[in-house]
Specification:
Radius of gyration: 25 Å
Strand order of the largest sheet: 15-16-17-14-13-19-20
Number of helices: 16
Shape: globular
Bound molecules: nicotinamide-adenine-dinucleotide
Helix content: 25-40%
Low-confidence stretches: none
Distance between the termini: 77 Å
Mean pLDDT: 97
Oligomer: single chain
Length: 499
């Protein structure tokens, strides 16, 4: 019997009342294991009201006390790592070690948030004018909301609420309806760490819940991560309702492989970054661009046996390279893209469709696929596949290769593999993409740097976490103060200057 999930509002589990739910699957077996309640607008408003009521007290709590909650939360994440990882794998399908990575990357944002008091300090100029001092402060915004995707149910909520709450905001998280158990558990642990009720609320739901967050006047800022069409909608709607919005979207990450690259290492990196987590990562490498025919031929020769021997298994199998996809729908979408690639003339060298795990025939598994001779006019190059499929696009020259990521509609991540410092440096400077790896396949910035793509991979202009995150979740107030020493100057009718 599938269990009923809940919302987490004002420090307590709250049952859904809308009458609408959505099934959560165990992707290993295809069984529905839980029902996510889909909140009505009124249920979302209850979450917003709880966060609004908690805001004044939390904003007035001194920054160091706020940071102490983060320190305790970090310890609780460590203590509960195994339980959280199993929960995450059982709904998402990624293997346990990868789920631990998902939690660990979130935990690192919490570590960063422990130091936010230092970044929230303002600036001060003594004697900016006669008897005048000038100082600025970074104040929290109020109630902030986060809308998160299914593929990182631990890390991405923590990207958002970790930074927002450490800055003194309160937060309403609307996680993916496909795997909401981990975000719900994170909220419980956050209360256990000492956060007052209402500082972090979780409301589950779909478009109705999202639209309520986007339009409610009590919500000051929206952070979104998901697919680009929705990201664009979130940005436009949130901004039209006067909110700050950062909205991260989809991706198509290229790996440029120069003739001088160490091909064995490149193949190891492409296999891990292309097929890990069944390709359900916004930083997955999904396009390999070998430069020159010989590089391309050698690369293909090495890739084929590696893709053929990928071990697809249960998310609980510690030997598996990757587990099932999140839903049957997602798996079928990937199979549809593979069919489209064949139809448009790409060479399908390894076909992962039709893969079944013995004894788990109803699980959402798909094998690894490899395409050669993909060209920029094909849909499988233009669009995000979000599955275990690597496309090889051949280029004759470095310039031709470098154009591909720069001209793509998405600009999340990109990597170059080479021993040539000049080529790498020029590529990193000039490529029209937000995150660049040099001999690094998944260049995800650490928590104290910031994460964000360009073009249709991100709408709005402030990245996640790092100092950019602190800027997003705070507003600057500048105070000019004068304590006169007794000299009377009379009225001045001209703008004050320092002439
Ligand atoms: P999605 O866009 O389907 O869903 C994301 C969120 O939006 C969910 O909470 C969902 O409930 C909500 N949503 C869905 N449809 C909506 C609608 N019509 N109106 C309002 N809200 C709606 O994305 P997903 O399938 O959960 O996640 C995969 C996508 O996320 C991929 O495109 C991936 O590249 C992207 N992603 C991007 C980043 C990044 O940082 N750029 C990181 C992770 C994932």
């Amino acid at each position: 019997m599938a269990k009923e999930l809940h919302h987490f509002i004002n420090g307590a589990k709250v049952a859904g009342t809308s009458g609408r739910t959505l099934g959560v699957f165990n992707p290993n077996t295809g069984e529905v294991t839980a029902q996510t309640p889909l909140a009505s607008a009124d249920e979302v408003r209850a979450g917003i009201a709880s966060s609004a009521a908690a805001f004044p007290g939390w904003a007035a709590t001194n920054p160091q006390r706020r940071a102490r909650v983060m320190f305790d939360f970090k310890r609780l994440l460590e203590d509960n790592m195994n339980e959280l990882a199993e929960m995450l794998s059982s709904e998402h399908g990624k293997v346990i070690a990868d789920s631990k990575g998902d939690i660990q990357r979130g935990l690192e944002v919490i570590e960063f948030a422990c130091g936010i008091p230092h970044l929230q300090k303002g600036e001060f100029t003594e004697g900016a004018g006669p008897d005048i001092d000038m100082y600025s402060m970074r104040q929290p915004l109020g109630v902030c909301a986060g809308i998160t995707p299914f593929n990182f149910p631990a890390m991405i909520p923590m990207w958002m609420f970790g930074v927002a709450i450490a800055c003194g905001n309160t937060f309403v998280c609307k996680p993916s309806e496909k795997d909401p158990s981990v975000p719900l558990r994170l909220a419980e642990l956050f209360m256990e760490a000492g956060a007052p009720a209402g500082v972090l609320n979780v409301v589950n739901g779909d478009k109705e819940a999202v639209d309520t967050l986007l339009t409610d006047p009590a919500v000051e800022a929206i952070s979104f991560v998901g697919s680009s069409a929705i990201a664009e909608y979130i940005y436009a709607t949130g901004a039209a309702h006067g909110k700050r919005v950062q909205a991260m979207g989809g991706a198509k990450n290229h790996a440029i492989i120069m003739p001088d690259a160490d091909l064995d290492r490149v193949v190891d990196d492409l296999i891990g970054a292309g097929y890990g987590s069944a390709g359900e990562r916004c930083m997955a490498l999904s396009v390999a661009v070998p430069v020159g025919k010989e590089t391309g031929d050698r690369l293909i020769e090495k890739l084929i046996p590696r893709v053929e021997s990928l071990k697809v298994g249960l998310s609980t199998d510690t030997d598996a390279d990757y587990g099932p996809m999140v839903t049957a729908e997602q798996r079928d979408k990937v199979a549809g893209w593979i069919a489209r690639g064949v139809e448009q003339g790409a060479d399908l060298l390894v076909d992962g469709r039709g893969f079944e795990l013995q004894g788990y025939e109803d699980g959402f598994f798909i094998g690894g696929s490899l395409f050669d001779n993909v060209t920029p006019d094909m849909d499988i190059w233009k669009e995000e596949i979000f599955g275990p499929v690597l496309s090889v696009v051949r280029a004759d020259t470095f310039e031709e290769a470098a154009k591909l990521p720069s001209e793509h509609q998405y600009g999340n991540g990109v990597a170059i593999f080479t021993r040539d410092g000049d080529a790498a440096r020029s590529f990193a400077s000039n490529v029209n993409v937000g995150m660049v790896g040099i001999n690094v396949p998944i260049p995800v910035p650490l928590a104290y740097h910031s994460f964000g793509g360009w073009k249709r991979s991100a709408f709005g202009d402030t990245n996640q976490h790092g100092t950019e995150g602190v800027k997003f979740y705070t507003k600057v107030k500048t105070v000019t103060s004068r304590w006169p020493t007794g000299v009377k100057e009379g009225s001045s009718f001209v703008i004050p200057t320092m002439k």
